[in-house]
Each structure stands twice: as C-alpha cells, then as structure tokens.
UniProtKB/TrEMBL annotation:
Protein name: Purine nucleoside phosphorylase
Record-annotated membrane-spanning stretches: none
Lineage: Eukaryota, Metazoa, Ecdysozoa, Arthropoda, Hexapoda
Binding, a purine D-ribonucleoside: 205, 247
NCBIfam families, sorted: PNPH, PNPH-PUNA-XAPA, PRK08202.1
Enzyme nomenclature, EC number: 2.4.2.1
Record keyword Glycosyltransferase present: yes
Catalytic activity, reaction form: guanosine + phosphate = alpha-D-ribose 1-phosphate + guanine; 2'-deoxyguanosine + phosphate = 2-deoxy-alpha-D-ribose 1-phosphate + guanine; inosine + phosphate = alpha-D-ribose 1-phosphate + hypoxanthine; 2'-deoxyinosine + phosphate = 2-deoxy-alpha-D-ribose 1-phosphate + hypoxanthine
Pfam entry (one): PNP_UDP_1
UniProt-recorded Gene Ontology molecular function terms: purine-nucleoside phosphorylase activity
Keywords for this protein: Glycosyltransferase, Transferase
Protein family according to the UniProt entry: Belongs to the PNP/MTAP phosphorylase family.
Chain's role: The purine nucleoside phosphorylases catalyze the phosphorolytic breakdown of the N-glycosidic bond in the beta-(deoxy)ribonucleoside molecules, with the formation of the corresponding free purine bases and pentose-1-phosphate.
Amino acid sequence: MAPIDEDGFSLTHLQKATSYIKGKIPSSPRILIICGSGLGILADSLQSPIVIPYGDIPNFPESTIKGHSGQLVFGTISGINVLCMKGRFHYYEGHSLKKITSPVRIAKLLGVELLIITNAAGGVNQKYKVGDIMLIKDHINFLGFAGTHPLRGLNDDDFGDRFFPVNRSYDKNIRKIAVEIGQSLGIGPNLHEGVYAMVGGPNYESPSEVRALRTLNVDAVGMSTIPEVLVAKHCGLKVFGFSLITNECVADYDSEKQPNHEEVLAAVNSRTQQLKDFVIKVIEKCNFNVSKNENISSDVKLSNKT
Ligand SMILES: O=P(O)(O)O[C@H]1O[C@H](CO)[C@@H](O)[C@H]1O
Ligand SMILES: Nc1nc2[nH]cnc2c(=O)[nH]1
C-alpha cells in the first residue's frame, strides 16, 4: 500500500519540487539552514547565491509571517554547498506539520546531510538575557504529547523506520565546536546549551505557563523547529540547532511587559553580524562533517538507498 499522500509528503509527491530545484542549482547541497524569524540574514553569507522564490517551487508552502521572506537560496560557505530557507513555516499559520517539514525531505533528496536549524525564542531560564544564543541540546515536543506529529500516518519506508530514537538529536560534536567558536567571538558569557520547547502558538505564554515550563527544566520556548528536527532525524540527517533569545518570558502576574513580534525582530536585528560570523565559523569548522560537493544528478533518489 502506498503511504497516505496527505499533504504531499511522500517520495512521489516531493519529486516535483525536488526536480525543479535540481534544475536551478549546479551541484548537490550538503547543508540546509532553516532561518528563524528575522534570521534570513544568514543567507547573506552565501557566496555566488542562486535565489529561488518559494512561489516558483511546485507544491512548496508559502511564508505568511513578517521576518520570513520566502526564498530558497543556494550558495557556498567555505566551499561547502549550502541551501538556505529564508523563511520557515509554522503550525499556527495553518500549515499541516507534513507541509511544514516537506522541505527537510526535499533537502534529503537533494543530498543534504546536515540540518542547521535556527529560531527566535523566549527565555524561560532566568539566567538568559535578550541577545543570548542557546545551543539546543534537547527538546520537549508538546504537540507530540497530544499525538500531533509530522510522521503520523503510514510510515514511508523510503525515508526512515516507523519507530526511531530522538535522544542525542542535536549533534554533540558540532555543539562542542560551536561553544569554542562562541568563546573565540567573545560571546562565551552569552552562549548557553539548553532545552527548547515548542508550543503551538500564536499567543505568547501566560505567567503560569512560563512557571510550568520552568518546572520542566525548559530553557527557551518557541513555536517551531521541533517538527523539522523530527523529520530530519527520521531520514538520517545530522542536526545542529540554536535559538536566539529575543525576549524574557513573563512569569510575573502583575508585570506590565507584553511580549510582541516587533521586539523579537528587533532583538534579531541587533545581533545580525555576530550571528552571521557564528554560523559561518561553525560551518567552516564542520567542513569534515559532510561529503565533498558533487554534481547534481538528474534522477530523484535517496542517497542512502541503492
Ligand atoms: O520560531 P521562529 O520561526 O524563529 O519564530 C518565532 O517568533 C515568532 C513569534 O514572535 C514565532 O513564529 C516563533 O516561532
Ligand atoms: N512561544 C514563544 N515563542 C517565541 N518566539 C520568540 N519569543 C517567543 C516567546 O516568548 N514564546
């Protein structure tokens, strides 16, 4: 029986988008960077960029949120082929989780081996300050607790096994490199390793929710990232992820503070150059971590399947 092709997530359905992208790029990407709110500036670090608007890619979702421009950019960083999503998709926009994560499967089909995923997140840990970077060491998938999952439905064996582990999802070697790079860039005191939690959104947390997250040892909270990571792990990609702390979550019942998207984007804008330097150096150091570039093949097949 063919996997349920709900929301176009099966190999057959994704081949149209994959073939279209293959026709636009000269060789296989090894790294996919997914840019969080306002973090599309990371794409500006790519050499010889080729820009493909999401709207031109068959069956590709569209971004609807400020700070997500809706372009796929192919280029190189330190000689490594990189695909960068300037704009990601969120469950609260109305996209299904299959749709949100379909770019990860397309990246796998294109030859990507490493997902670098970024987001803007609220600081739950009271030690975190606006502008800090949190390397994600683990996550809590609240949507998954209720069974809301991108891989719900028949499993597509073309991509991965029905049941799969997600402990050690966030590559420890790359995190170690990132910590060293953070120190070399002078952001060591503002660099943490912590637990990211995803909620559905689009509202920010109530004070009681922030207090509950703290009891669960959550360090940062957002409305994205984990579905993409789960699909990446399912199909065998390495993952490195970080959050930019863009606001301090409000746990005081009488606080006048009201988290908002403008402050989120402003916090990202204030760290633009440092974030670009950070990501470039992580990729430079990870050079050994992915295969060398190779010319793009015309047929669409999974690299780990004969
Ligand atoms: O997770 P990213 O895409 O960075 O965006 C974060 O910022 C927005 C809220 O300000 C939400 O979309 C939340 O998920
Ligand atoms: N859920 C959530 N997502 C965010 N994205 C940026 N800041 C926040 C926040 O405080 N809460």
